[in-house]
Amino acid sequence: MMASIDTMIERAREVMAYAYAPYSKFQVAACILGDNGQFYTGVNVENASYGLTLCAEAVAQVNMVADGCHKINSIVVMCNTNELCSPCGACRQRLHEFSSEKTMVHLCSQQALIKSITLDELLPLAFKFKP
Length: 131
Known about the structure:
- The protein is 29% helix and 24% strand.
- It is α+β, with helices and mostly antiparallel strands.
- The chain has a single domain (2-122), classed as 3-Layer(aba) Sandwich (Cytidine Deaminase, domain 2), CATH 3.40.140.10.
- Strands 2-1-3-4-5 form a 5-stranded mixed β-sheet.
- A hairpin with a 4-residue loop joins strand 4 and strand 5.
- 35% of the residues are buried.
């Protein structure tokens, strides 16, 4: 498992430079490991109208879904300040849509793992809809 976390950290670090954060200067990168064994990266994309900003986690998730994968095994999230960077509330709910009770969220610096937590611990009482 540690080998995949190391790979995810490396993939997120590689795309960090592509984050578009001219307003906040706060670059975020994410890497998802799908249940198909593939890695999906994303970076934040800011907009002058902040409400239109795309989070790195959401971009990685869209890349995963566009590839036909609908289950997240784990996700790495990091920022350019190397401090703990946790997904926002909206991203927690977005991630929940494609996760299980075993989905792990790894909060990382650009070099190493800082903290691992399950998505259920990060988002207790998530909104769930069963059609």
